[in-house]
Structures are given as C-alpha cells and as structure tokens.
C-alpha cells in the first residue's frame, strides 16, 4: 500500500492550490453585488452632522460614501468605490482613504488620487446638512 498516500496527497494539494487562487481573484477585484458595493443612487441620511468634524472626514462604509468638512464648515462627499477596479474602500486615516485591493490612496477632502495604481479621482456626490443630518447622494441638493 505505499502508493496510496502519495496520490491522495497530490490530489489534496492540487485542489488546495487552485481554490485560493480562484477565490482571491474574485474577492479582490469583483464588484460583487453591484447594488451593495456601489455609491448611493438617491439621497441617503448618513448620520448626525456633528459626526463630521471641521477639517476632518468620516467614512460611511455601509453606503460607500466619505464626507469631509473644511475649515469653513462646508461639506463635501465622494463615492468610495475605487476608480481603479471598483473595490469598496474600507479604510480612512485622517483624511486619506486607502483601497484594500491594490493600495490606491485618495484625498477624502478633494477626491484626488494620492497614490497609484488608481489615476482617476473619486466621484463627487451632492451633499447637504438637513435638520442636523448629513444627506448625500444624487439629487440631494436638487
Ligand atoms: S481597486 Fe485597485 S486600488 Fe482600488
């Protein structure tokens, strides 16, 4: 029976080598469910206006939106769907957004690219403060 362990081990290893590669490819770049991993298509109430500090930014992961406020109190909002390969950006350090897929970085106050591979700025979204709430998304200010 010396032949038995070798073929089965080979089979297991081959299977193990293939599965993660396919899985990673899907997880890293696929937009997945487009209705989930997308910016708002209508105005959404993101939360209390006081959560966005002057000179700061807040990432709303559930809605794929980042909202920043400048020193004058003006709000700006951007989609956090990465312009490189459409991954949802899930990390905000200060006012710097970092994409988990390939490491692109964006300025949350301007949408501009700070680090490649992305080369296109984030999409700006209309935003306003309404009754102490931050509301962002298309037609929010229409
Ligand atoms: S999807 Fe490639 S860096 Fe964001």
TrEMBL record:
<dbReference type="InterPro" id="IPR017941">
    <property type="entry name" value="Rieske_2Fe-2S"/>
</dbReference>
<dbReference type="GO" id="GO:0051537">
    <property type="term" value="F:2 iron, 2 sulfur cluster binding"/>
</dbReference>
<keyword id="KW-0411">Iron-sulfur</keyword>
<dbReference type="Pfam" id="PF00355">
    <property type="entry name" value="Rieske"/>
</dbReference>
<dbReference type="InterPro" id="IPR014349">
    <property type="entry name" value="Rieske_Fe-S_prot"/>
</dbReference>
<keyword id="KW-1015">Disulfide bond</keyword>
<keyword id="KW-0479">Metal-binding</keyword>
<dbReference type="InterPro" id="IPR006311">
    <property type="entry name" value="TAT_signal"/>
</dbReference>
<protein>
    <recommendedName>
        <fullName>Cytochrome bc1 complex Rieske iron-sulfur subunit</fullName>
    </recommendedName>
</protein>
<feature type="domain" description="Rieske">
    <location>
        <begin position="44"/>
        <end position="136"/>
    </location>
</feature>
<dbReference type="GO" id="GO:0046872">
    <property type="term" value="F:metal ion binding"/>
</dbReference>
<comment type="function">
    <text>Iron-sulfur subunit of the cytochrome bc1 complex, an essential component of the respiratory electron transport chain required for ATP synthesis. The bc1 complex catalyzes the oxidation of menaquinol and the reduction of cytochrome c in the respiratory chain. The bc1 complex operates through a Q-cycle mechanism that couples electron transfer to generation of the proton gradient that drives ATP synthesis.</text>
</comment>
<dbReference type="InterPro" id="IPR005805">
    <property type="entry name" value="Rieske_Fe-S_prot_C"/>
</dbReference>
<dbReference type="GO" id="GO:0004497">
    <property type="term" value="F:monooxygenase activity"/>
</dbReference>
<dbReference type="GO" id="GO:0016020">
    <property type="term" value="C:membrane"/>
</dbReference>
<dbReference type="GO" id="GO:0016705">
    <property type="term" value="F:oxidoreductase activity, acting on paired donors, with incorporation or reduction of molecular oxygen"/>
</dbReference>
<keyword id="KW-0408">Iron</keyword>
<dbReference type="InterPro" id="IPR036922">
    <property type="entry name" value="Rieske_2Fe-2S_sf"/>
</dbReference>
<keyword id="KW-0001">2Fe-2S</keyword>
């Amino acid at each position: 029976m010396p032949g038995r362990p070798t073929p089965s081990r080979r089979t297991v290893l081959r299977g193990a080598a293939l599965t993660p590669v396919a899985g990673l490819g899907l997880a890293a770049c696929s937009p997945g469910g487009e209705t989930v991993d997308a910016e708002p298509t209508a105005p959404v109430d993101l939360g209390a206006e006081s959560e966005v500090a002057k000179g700061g930014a807040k990432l709303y992961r559930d809605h794929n939106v980042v909202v920043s406020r400048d020193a004058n109190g003006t709000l700006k909002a951007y989609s956090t769907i990465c312009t490189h390969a459409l991954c949802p950006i899930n990390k905000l350090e200060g006012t710097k957004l970092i994409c988990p897929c390939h490491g692109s970085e964006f300025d949350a106050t301007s949408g501009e690219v700070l680090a490649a591979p992305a080369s296109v700025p984030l999409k700006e979204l209309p935003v306003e403060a309404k009754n102490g709430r931050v509301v962002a998304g298309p037609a929010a200010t229409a």
